[in-house]
Amino acid sequence: MGIVVIGAVFVDIKGYPLGKYVPDGRNAGRVVQVHGGVSRNVAEDIANVELRPTFLSVVDDTGTGEDVIHKLQRHKVVTDYIQKVPGGLGTWLAIFDQDGDVVGSISQRPDLSVLSDVLAEHGDEIFRDCDSVVVEIDMASSLLKQIFDLADRYHKVVYAVVSNMSIALERRDLMMRTGCVVCNQEEAGLLFSDDFTGMTPEELAPIIYRKACTAQYRRVVVTMGKSGAVYAEPDIGCGVCPAQETAVIDTAGCGDAFFAGVTIGLTYGKKLKEACEIGTRLASSVIATKENVCPRFRPEEFGLFPGRNC
Description:
By secondary structure, the protein is an alpha/beta fold. It has ten helices and 14 strands.
């Protein structure tokens, strides 16, 4: 069944200025709508490495919901457990500046409670046969408990993707049970109640290592934009993964692609440093494409042989 991804689907409404973005002005530009959501993005990114993830989610009962499912199916994502309910799609409204960076956003989350029934009916078969599990750690606590209980029952590693660190901080006990915590530099400051502003990767890596050991996280990766990422694994060590130089068209979704790469690598037998390198390559491919259309890769390009080294 490959990697199982559990989370929400959003419709992303993105506004791009034609020239320099003026925060308090009326900016001429273009507005596009694309399928998004952290978990949906991660599922598609995994599928773009010709792996076949299974996606548990909710869409609405309109043509847009059908379009979401059909696109995922074209990417070879298993959609058998996606539920259709009224209002099942979330919405993310974002404004970008002339450099492709998000300068403001508002999100409306969907209700995922129906997934509890799906897990009650099919959870055993899903978790028994999967290679690992990706879950949005800021979902409802009752749903997360159900997911982690199933993962424990079948000895599956859970990788928590963070879309709202303020909510994720309320689930520190669950984050300690995940295979790896991946966050950006600002989120790391919230996670560890510290300020890492202005630090270089070389300065930050040993600090994150010490804090990961104290907090008893299994692995921690902190992304630092153009400066790359740092990684730490208690009792093993820490290091820096440099970013790949690439033309920046749209940074939305690059963090999700990085997370997907790290999860893929760790699921299929790579060390943390190698997993970060896979994440960096996937993130770079997303940044350099319009509307985040990630190119497809073969698992062998990353030294991955699912079934042999998972």
